[in-house]
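Researcher: Sequence recovery benchmark, item below. Answer with residues only.
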C-alpha cells in the first residue's frame, strides 16, 4: 500500500518521531544537547522557526513553522545526523527511529495553542515531573531559566503571552475534548479528479455564529469539501436536514 502523501506546504507543523521499538533515544545529557544543537542548525540552514519542543526519553515533539517547502529536508537532516551520532557513540548499528517522522499540519491559532500546551505538558502526562518548570528538555524550561538553547525559540509565537501567562496556561490540565483535537491533520479529498487538502477546519465555518448564518455556513462548508454527514454530525442535525438546507440555500 503506498504511503499517504505528506503535506509540506509552508506553515505550522507538529512533528513527532520515536525510537525503534520505543527504545530510548537519549541516554545522557550530552545526547539531548546534541539533538538540540542539530535543531539549532536546521533552524538557520532551512529557514524554520521553532515554536515549542519537548524531548522525552524515547521520542520527541516539535512545533515548528516552515517558510519554504523543505520540511522533509530539514527533518531528514536532524534525524540522520542524530542517528549517526547515537550509533557511533553507543557502538550500535541499524535503525534508530521507528520510521519516517510524523507531521501534523496545524489549521489555525486555536490548533497551535492546543498543540503547544500538549507538547509542554508531556513530562507531566508521563509522570516524570509534577510541575511544568521541573523538566529540562523542553522549550518552557529554556524560556523560564534562559538556558543554553533559549535562542532556539527566540522567534516563537509563544511570546504572544508573557512568561507568567504562559506558565499559568501550561499548568492547567488539558480537557478531554481538546486532547482529541491535538492530532488533527488536514483532510484529503478527491475533487474534480484531483486530490485536495482541506486546510480549513470544519469548526471554523461555524465559530462566529451557529444560528444567524447557519444555512450559509453549511453551504460554504459543503462547497469547500466537507461531506453532508460530517456537517450533520458536527451540528447534531440529521442528514436529510442538511440536504434540504443545501437545496434551498
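Model:
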Amino acid at each position: 500500500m503506498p504511503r499517504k502523501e505528506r503535506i509540506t506546504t509552508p506553515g505550522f507543523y507538529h512533528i513527532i518521531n520515536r525510537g525503534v521499538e520505543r527504545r530510548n533515544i537519549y541516554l545522557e545529557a550530552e545526547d539531548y544537547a546534541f539533538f538540540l544543537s542539530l535543531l539549532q542548525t536546521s533552524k538557520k540552514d532551512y529557514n524554520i522557526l521553532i515554536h515549542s519542543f519537548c524531548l522525552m526519553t524515547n521520542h520527541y515533539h516539535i512545533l515548528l513553522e516552515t517558510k519554504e517547502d523543505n520540511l522533509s529536508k530539514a527533518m531528514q537532516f536532524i534525524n540522520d545526523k542524530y542517528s549517526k551520532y547515537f550509533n557511533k557513540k553507543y557502538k550500535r548499528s541499524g535503525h534508530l527511529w521507528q520510521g519516517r517522522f510524523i507531521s501534523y499540519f496545524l489549521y489555525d491559532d486555536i490548533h497551535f495553542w492546543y498543540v503547544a500546551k500538549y507538547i509542554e505538558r508531556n513530562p507531566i502526562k508521563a509522570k516524570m515531573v509534577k510541575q511544568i518548570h521541573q523538566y529540562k528538555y523542553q522549550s518552557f524550561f529554556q524560556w523560564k531559566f534562559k538556558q543554553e538553547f533559549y535562542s532556539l525559540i527566540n522567534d516563537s509565537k509563544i511570546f504572544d503571552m508573557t512568561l507568567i501567562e504562559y506558565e499559568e496556561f501550561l499548568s492547567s490540565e488539558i480537557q478531554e475534548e481538546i486532547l482529541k483535537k491535538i492530532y488533527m491533520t488536514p483532510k484529503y479529498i478527491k475533487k474534480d479528479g484531483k486530490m485536495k487538502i482541506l486546510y480549513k477546519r470544519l469548526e471554523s465555518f461555524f465559530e462566529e455564529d451557529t444560528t444567524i448564518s447557519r444555512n450559509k455556513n453549511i453551504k460554504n462548508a459543503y462547497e469547500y469539501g466537507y461531506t453532508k454527514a460530517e456537517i450533520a454530525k458536527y451540528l447534531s442535525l440529521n442528514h436529510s436536514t442538511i440536504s434540504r438546507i443545501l437545496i434551498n440555500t
